Every structure is written in structure tokens, then in C-alpha cells.
Amino acid sequence: MKKKSAWYVCLRAIREKIKGFSVRIHKEDQQTEEKMERFKTKVKETIKQKQEWIGFDDESREAWIALAIPFIDWIKEGCLNGTISQDDIHKRFPVVWNKFLKQFGLNDNIQVKDSKC
What is the torsion angle, in degrees rounded to the nearest 10, for the CA atoms of residue 101, residue 107, residue 108 and residue 113? Predict the structure, then answer.
């Protein structure tokens, strides 16, 4: 059986959550703070599920969450001000992700410890 890396699984999970989120942002004029917090909680839960499935450490999980939450805010802002389109997210996600990382001086080279992989 082929094993996927934690990087691939977490980034794909973030991408899938963001795709649905971007559709809702473009349909609704306003995302309430309550809706945003619920969405962020769902993303955190998804990353935790991926951690349990793959078996990576808590520090790595928290590092992925630390990337995902500001990414959500950045995507929301970009969608609302028109600098990020649904097409960007759906068809050019790697470009959008890398732009986010570069803009904030971040990287997604998270070293997984105590992995089952």
C-alpha cells in the first residue's frame, strides 16, 4: 500500500476545506465571526484526524494549524477584496499557497517526528 506524506495529506486537507470555504465567501457578502470560528475549528479537527490517521506528533499538528489559521484569514481577505478568485483556489492552489508562504516569510517544511510512516 502506498503511504502519503504528512505534508501531502495535511496540505490536501487544507486545500479541500479552503475550496468549499471560498465558494461560501463568494456567495455570501458577509462571513460572521462566529462562522469563521466554526470553520477554523473544523479545519483544526480535520488536521487532528489526519494526525491520528497517519500518526505524526503533536508539535507537527500544531505547526500545520499555525499555518492553516492565518491562511484562512488571508484567503478570506483576498476573496473579499478581489485579489484571490475561486479559480485561483480551485485551479492554482499551489501558486496561492506559495504566495501566502512567501508573503509572510513562512515555510511548510514541517519535520514530522515519531511518525508511523
Answer: -160
Could you give the CA distance from residue 74 to residue 47 in angstroms, rounded to a whole number? Answer: 19
Domain edges within the chain: 6-104
Cα–Cα distance, 20 to 105 (Å, whole number): 26
Q: What percent of the chain has pLDDT over 70?
A: 89
Task: Give SS3 for 111.
Answer: coil
Across the chain, mean pLDDT equals 89
**What would the DSSP string read from start to end of 52-91?**
HHHT--HHHHHHHHHHHHHHHHHHHHHHHHTSS-HHHHHH
Rounded CA-CA distance 112/117 in Å is 10
Residue type (1 letter), 16: E
C-alpha neighbours within 13 Å on the C-beta side of residue 62: 4
The three cell numbers locating residue 106: 513562512
pTM of the model: 0.88
Residue carrying the nine cell digits 485579489: 83
